[in-house]
Amino acid sequence: MNKCFLSVQTIEDPKESYDWRNKLILTCKALVPAIGKGDPTQITIKAFSDRDMSRMQQLKKDMHLFISAGSLRWDYKAKELSVSGGQLVRVDASSFPIVNEVCLTGDCGNDINHSDGRQVKFIESSKGHFVKATQTLVVNTGGKGYDYFQLEAFNEVGAPLDLASMLMDRTRKGTPLSIYGYLSTNQWIDKESGVPKSRTVVRLTKGRTMSAPASRQEIKPQTEVATDKVTTLWGGQTAEATTETETVPDPQTPEETQPQADNVPVAAGPSPNPWGMEEDDGKPF
Q: How many domains does the chain have?
């Protein structure tokens, strides 16, 4: 499964582009508002069908939209997070909530090394003892294609919903996994080049392993994405963190947030669309 439900704000007018088959498509860059103390996540809306392209032509810069049941993609060569399909609806940011939900099912891409601080990290704070764990989720895109999403779980040690321990102790390379989460982005300035960079992961809110693991060929994509920092988004609102532990500051430095060479960013976690799926009336907005 690959579904996302996102509130976004466009940052450009739609543009013509071409897909890998040299077919004309429309694209439009947008931002997903930050969750908690994170940064906005840049995403590209893509329209492939005639219906979606007709709707995309109605978009303008700085529009507020809700994407319902879109498909999330990560192009590791272009270092681009994108969404296509689903329902695209224009909304009023003053009354419509910030939604950032993703649901993904795939196979885990890594064996977890508990002694590697980039995969497992224990954090002491005045609010308690916390643990953070990461894993890569390999999601089939049809045929022999795969997208690699970087998962992250962060919670108090021994919490009733201990998603970090699930990743640490119950997953390895090839383990089938289904997760819900949200897109979480951190931005920093590279000390050597001075170039702004970002890393996007899917912060888990739910997850479960499934049947026995299967082997999977590994691809090692790049994970750093150059991006500009945005100061105003969704009327200046910021979404509340979804769990109590999200309010605990994660004391990692920008260098520590950089992913491993064999991991890929992204990704976020949904629950069923709370507004339901309305039937398409054929009107753009």
A: 2
Within the chain, which residues score under 70 in pLDDT? Answer: 211-232, 238, 240-285
Do the domain assignments include residue 273? no
Q: Which of 100, 117, 139 is the last residue of a domain?
A: 100
pLDDT digits (tens, 9 = 90+) for 144-153: 889 999 999 9
Domain at 161, CATH number: 2.40.50.140
Q: Running DSSP on this structure, what letter comes out for residue 96?
A: S
Residue 55 is given by DSSP the state H
Which residue carries 């939604």 as its tokens? 99
Task: Please give the structure tokens belonging to residue 239.
Answer: 């979404």
Instruction: Label residues 181-219 b or e (16+ Cβ within 10 Å = b).
Output: bbbbbbbbeeeeeeeebbbbbbbbbebebeeebeeeeee
Answer yes or no: are the C-beta atoms of 273 and 235 closer than 8 Å.
Answer: no
